[in-house]
Structures are given as C-alpha cells and as structure tokens.
Amino acid sequence: MELSQFPYLRTMILQANDIHKSFGQLEILKGVDLSVAKGEIVSIVGASGAGKSTLLHIVGTLDKPDSGKVTINGVDVTALNEKKLSQFRNEHIGFVFQFHHLLPEFTALENVCIPAFIQGKSPKEAEKTAMELLERLGVQHRAYHKPGQLSGGEQQRVSVARALVNNPALILADEPSGNLDSENAASLHQLFFDLRDALNQTFIIVTHNEELAGISDRTVHMRDGLIL
Ligand SMILES: Nc1ncnc2c1ncn2[C@@H]1O[C@H](COP(=O)(O)OP(=O)(O)O)[C@@H](O)[C@H]1O
Ligand SMILES: [Mg+2]
C-alpha cells in the first residue's frame, strides 16, 4: 500500500499558501500554492524568469513574500522576526546552490561543520557528524582538502553534506547539477534519492535536468509566476 494514496496521513513539511511577490512594479509570484510531504522529492521546472528561484528563496526564508503564508514543519515562518528566522533557517533548512558557495579558505570538513557550529555544537560533535556525512557521500578522502582542490562533483557532494549537517526538515536545491557534466549530474541526483531512502529527507529541487524531473516523485511546472 502506498502512503501517498492517503495524503492526510503524511506529515506535511512545507505548506506555502497564496504567495505573492513583486520587485518594484514587476509581479513575480502571482499566488503560488505548494505543499510538500515528508520524504518527498519534488522538482520545480519552468523557463528562465518564471519565478522559480524567487519561490525557493521565499520557501527557504531568505526572502519574505508580500502576502501569503509559509509553514515549515508546523511553524508559520512568515510570523518570525529576523533573529528567530535565521535560527530557524540554520536548524531546519539546508541549501544546495548551482555554485557550491563553499568557503575557499576552509577545508571540506570545516565547511560542513560551519552550520553545526552556528547551532552551538561542540567541535567534536560537529566533526563526527560531518565526517559521517562526507563518508556517506563518498568524499571522506577529501575531508582535509580545500574546495579549490576538489572536482565540481566533489564540491557539490561537500555542499550537500553541509546542507545535511543539522539534519534539516527540508533541503532546497537551486539547479544543483546545472554546473556538472551529465555523469556527475546523474550521480548527484542518485544521491538525493539515496538520502531520501536512508534518512527520509525531503527535497525541493529547481532543475532544468529532464532526467531528474522524470524520476522525481512529483514535478511542479511554473510559468509567469504561477504553478500550472
Ligand atoms: N531581487 C530582485 N530584484 C528585481 N527583480 C528580480 C529580483 N529577483 C528576481 N527578479 C526578477 O524576477 C523574475 C523571476 O526571477 P527568478 O525567480 O530568478 O526566475 P527563475 O529562477 O525561474 O529563472 C526575473 O524577471 C528576475 O529578473
Ligand atoms: Mg533561477
């Protein structure tokens, strides 16, 4: 029996309701609704300029909607002040971007530890979790190298480990394989599914990669600020 047949039995990780966002005169999001259940892998696809990154930023609490409500893990994040919000983001949301955004002067291991340090974990505890993740992602042999010494595929794996280190409720990825060759892209995508199977992680992934969209649990199409 598939649990997905009974949506009301599933834990909802994200509920975004009637999200509106304008930049100046330009209306970018025109009333977007999106719900994602725990353990779901949802792809967002659509032409450049459709509003995908804007939506992801709002869902990720990096930006605020003009109106509408975002609930993550049962918390109305649109009601939190900046201080509470950054704490919530650090604890509950992991980000993976097209460009890894690893800090060049720190090793892979240190990069993965940083969000855990911000949460107040001890170096010992943070490093243990970070090492386990690097191992799970197959890059433990690169732990003491700096990002500049890693391949593109390895850099992305390290940034996925960083996204996971605080065991977030939700991982948001904006074109995570956009900068990878097809082989590295396919193996990164496989990793998302492995993480879902092993840790019941939840993913929302903006992608132009049709293969990834095809194997996702659900694909959401965006056009001109609306979900179709
Ligand atoms: N901070 C901003 N200020 C002004 N315009 C923006 C800003 N962010 C995005 N936009 C505009 O919003 C539209 C949607 O952008 P975006 O969400 O990045 O689309 P997508 O990720 O689907 O390509 C684009 O026309 C873009 O130029
Ligand atoms: Mg974008």
Brief synopsis:
The chain is built from 7 helices and 10 strands. The chain has 228 residues and is α/β, with parallel strands linked by helices. It is globular and about 45 Å long.
Return Rg in Å.
17 Å
CATH-assigned fold name: Rossmann fold
Estimate the strand proportion.
25-35%
* CATH H-level superfamily: P-loop containing nucleotide triphosphate hydrolases
Question: How can the largest sheet be summarized?
Answer: 6 strands, mixed
User: Unreliable runs, pLDDT <50, ≥5 residues?
Assistant: none
Mean pLDDT: 94
CATH architecture: 3-Layer(aba) Sandwich
Order of strands side by side in the largest beta sheet? 6-7-8-3-9-10
Query: Which ions and ligands are bound to the chains?
Result: adenosine-5'-diphosphate, magnesium ion
Q: What gap, in angstroms, lies between the N and C termini?
A: 29 Å
CATH class: Alpha Beta
| Structure classification | alpha/beta
Structurally, the number of domains stands at 1
**Gross morphology:** globular
Number of strands: 10
What is the string of helix and strand elements? EEEHEEHEHHHEHEHEE
The helix content is: 25-40%
Can you count the helices? Answer: 7
